[in-house]
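Can't attach files on this board, so I'm pasting raw text. These are the components:
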Amino acid sequence: MQPVATTFFFYMLSGIAVLGGILVITRRNAVHSALALILTLLSVAGLYLMLYAPFVAGVQIILYAGGIMVLFLFVIMLVNLEKSQKEEQFNKIWLIGLLGALGLGALFVGVFVRSARSSNDIFFQLLRRPLVAFADESNTQAVGQMLYQNYLFAFEIASLLLLVAIIGAVVMAKKRIN
Amino acid sequence: MAEIGILHYLIVAALLFILGVIGVLTRRNVVIVLMSIELILNAVNLNLVAFSRMWGLHGQVFSIFVITDAAAEAAVGLGILIAFFRNKETVNVDEVDLMKW
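---
Top answer:
Structure tokens for the assembled complex are below.
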């Protein structure tokens, strides 16, 4: 099946993702930020689908939007944010932070312009080439095989990491009974 | 509009990264700082999956590990936030100064 209207969907999904990102960092209410982040996560999952990565898109929706963001919302409800909603929203050194981030952005733009102008940057030309559609049937099987064959050690370490995180989160958040 | 190449995805990922960095460095509420960190991780994931479109599945496997790591980090970070909030009743980064001299 041939992909339809790729350009439109790409610009729509990336526009929604960037809009959600802007909303995350500017909202006063933390719940609004969390909902905007869920919007960004779902549109990035759509971008993964366009990049022929259905397994990563599924993991993103189930784990990220359905697990991590629910955890965030629970904690926002546990922690009383009423008082902090009426206070100043940006911290004391916000100007320095903004300048630093814009400096990083200028660095990105500089690298982009420099490689766009150079005539013998093969990698850049390769990145610009339009992507052709191909039939993918077995992405999940292929990712699963790679996880269990090439990256088995990293897989086991990741499960150990999750165990440590579970224990750490329970210990940190538990009430002290003194 | 030109045909979509990998470069377009990289530009979107760079934009999301910069928005996340602005959020981490600028906001006062710790919860929103943690959410901006998740934005940064998502930008990195988008980069990885975009490159994996042309150069094999390694990028997708790596991005699964990054998502796993983001979950662990969010859980521990929010646990620390709850423990801190229990002591000081505030979620301002400006007031996290118990170890300041």
